[in-house]
Structure formats: structure tokens, C-alpha cells
Amino acid sequence: MSKIRATIKGIDVFLPEYRLTNHELSTMVDTSDEWIMQRIGIRERRILKGDGLATSDMMSEAAKKLLAKTNTSPDEIDLVVAATNTPDMFFPATACIVCDKVGIKNAWGFDLLAACSSFIYALETVGKFVESGQYKKVLLLAGDKMSSIVDYTNRNTCPLFGDAATALLIEPTTEDRGIVDKIFHVDGSGRGKLYMKAGGSQYPASHETVDNRWHYIYQDGQTVFKVAVSRMADSALELMERHKITPDDLAYLVPHQANMRIIDAVGRRMGLAPGKVMVNIEKYGNTTSATIPLCLYEWDDKLKKGDKLILAAFGGGFTWGALYLKY
Fold first, then answer.
1. What is the largest CA-CA distance in the chain?
2. What is the pLDDT of residues 63-88, one digit of tens each?
3. Distances 22 to 27, 34, 144, 261 between C-alpha atoms, Å
4. What pLDDT score does 2 carry?
5. Confidence class for position 37, pLDDT limits 50, 70, 90
6. How many other β-carbons are positioned within 10 Å of the β-carbon of residue 260?
7. Mapping DSSP to helix (H, G, I), strand (E, B) and coil, where does residue 165 land?
């Protein structure tokens, strides 16, 4: 019997209409378009506007578009996994909320949180469910409303992040494509370098946590930059060596879109020409869980069946890794 693999059957996205430009940011904090472009490579980012709108609203819209595009009924979905760092609330899971908004009645689901590595961790997770042979149609959601946890008085972090959501339909295949292999790691000693201090059980919301601005992202930028480059590149290179993939064999590296300098450095470490690295950070910024699938969506018409892709990410925790995917 042929081995079952999990493959991406379809992908769609939701992008908020509002564009927060560098020029507008320069009226909010001491920054400029030149400063942001030189250090980060972001020109604008999408922001979800509207009272009460949350991550589930973006995911639900992406899911509805995907189901229509793939001619899939909500009743056919077996499992829903939402990769997100900005759930609507602690519970119920955002996956449950999306099921209600989309009309999915016959599935079970849960959220997965691994900072900026959430998507590749979730893709591997749902892949194992599909490979088991029990699941035929899995809805993988990946997205974040990062604007909800960004401090727009902090010029070091507020230019980085944007809002977006993606939806992928994952199905089984016996063809030589889909998820092939992965290398994932966690180093918990990095937990104090990139985090949101309050809002959890350690520091529940209080006047003190709000006054101290602990409900926003904190990042030790220099440390994160150095570790992200080495860890992403090492994982990707190890995966290429394991499967005897040369830079010429690789169709694309699909890196997490955190910082243009990180993306460039990882590509150079891997010996890849710039044209073999997917980059769209200038238009969207760091959408956290959504960055990699947003790239896959935008490059979909350029990809051919069987193209070899390496997906690589690094996030708070520290979490990082690389995943080998045949498109």
C-alpha cells in the first residue's frame, strides 16, 4: 500500500483593508520610512479596524473563501486547527468560534500556539492526523491580530507587525508530494527575550499590569536577530542535507517574514540566490502565524507540482524549525 502523505489542496487569505504606512507611523512615534525600510524592510502593514473584530473574524472570512474555491462543504471538514498567538479569548478556542461562524458541524478542533513557529508546527501536527488515514479534510487556519498586542508608543516594535489570516485545506495523497519531513526545536531559556508579560496566570490583568504596559509585546531585538538567523538556517540546511537537496534543487525557501535583514542573512547562509527566497514583508509586515502561508498563497501560480520547498520559522519561546514540503 502506498504511503499516505498530507498535502495542501487549497489555500486562501483574508487581509484587512486598512493599510498602516510608515508615514502614518512617523506621526505616532519617532521614526521614519527610511529608518524602518533600512532596518526592517517593511513599508506598510494591514490593520483590522472595527469594534469587537478579532482573529476569528479574519480566519472565518479566509475559511469561507477557501471552502467556496475548493467546492468543499463545511459538513465535510473533519478537523479544524487554528494556529494563532492572538486568540479571541483564552477559551473557548478560536477554532471553536470559527466553526460556529463558518457553519462547521461535524468536526472537532483546537488552537495551537508556538509564537512565530505556530504555522509550521500546526502544519506538521495536522499532517500526522491526515497520515493516520482517519482524516480526509482538515481545515488549517493561521492568523493573528497582532495590532491588539502592539504598543504604538514603542518605536522598536510597533513598525514590525500586521494583521492577516489564512486558511488551508489539507488532504491525503499517495502521490510523491506533500509534507515529507521536519526538524523542530525548543529552547525555553529564550523565554525572556520575546514575550508578552501579562494576561496569563502569572500576571492576570490588573491596574498594575495595564499601567506598566505589560500587555504588549516585548522583544530583545539584537538577541532575537542573532539567534533567529543561526537557528533557521541551521535547521533548513540540516533538512536539505538529510534529503540531499542542493540549492539548485530547491524551488524556494519560504521563511517567516520577521525582518528583511533576517531573511537575507538566512538566504545567504543557505547559498540561495535572492530569487529563490519568498519575500513579501514589505507589503504586510510580520503577521506572525500567517506569514508563511501568505507567501505560499501569493506564489501559488508560480509553483509547480513536485516543487521542493523548505519552510523555516523562528519565534518566542524560543521555538524554531524547518519543514520540507513537496508542492
1. 62
2. 999 999 999 999 999 999 999 999 99
3. 9, 9, 20, 18
4. 79
5. very high
6. 17
7. strand
Say whether both 188 and 311 belong to one domain.
Answer: yes
On the question of pLDDT at 51 being above 90, the answer is: yes
| Catalytic residue from among 116, 158, 259, 295 | 116
Q: What is the pLDDT of residues 99-147, one digit of tens each?
A: 999 999 999 999 999 999 999 999 999 999 999 999 999 999 999 999 9
Contacts of 254 (CB under 8 A, 6+ apart): 278, 292, 295, 296, 309, 310, 311, 312
CA angle, corner 7, sides to 3 and 288, nearest 5? 135
Q: Among this protein's residues, is 85 annotated catalytic?
A: no
Residues 28 and 58 in one domain: yes
Region of 280 please: left (phi>0), alpha (psi -120 to 50) or beta. Answer: alpha
Active-site position among 85, 158, 286, 295: 286
The answer to whether the peptide bond before residue 318 is cis (omega within 30 degrees of 0) is yes
Confirm whether 116 is a catalytic residue.
Answer: yes
Counted residue by residue, the chain has a size of 327
Could you tell me the residue range of the domain that residue 86 belongs to?
A: 5-175
Give bridge partners of residue 21 from the DSSP assignment.
Answer: 44
Q: Which three cell numbers stand for residue 34?
A: 527610511
Count the domains in the chain. Answer: 2
For residue 189, give the CATH number of its domain: 3.40.47.10
d(CA 197, CA 230): 26
Q: Render 212-242 in DSSP notation, one character per residue.
A: TTTTSEEE-HHHHHHHHHHHHHHHHHHHHHH
> Residue 256 catalytic?
yes
More confident residue, 3 or 278: 278
Please check whether residues 38 and 134 belong to one and the same domain.
yes
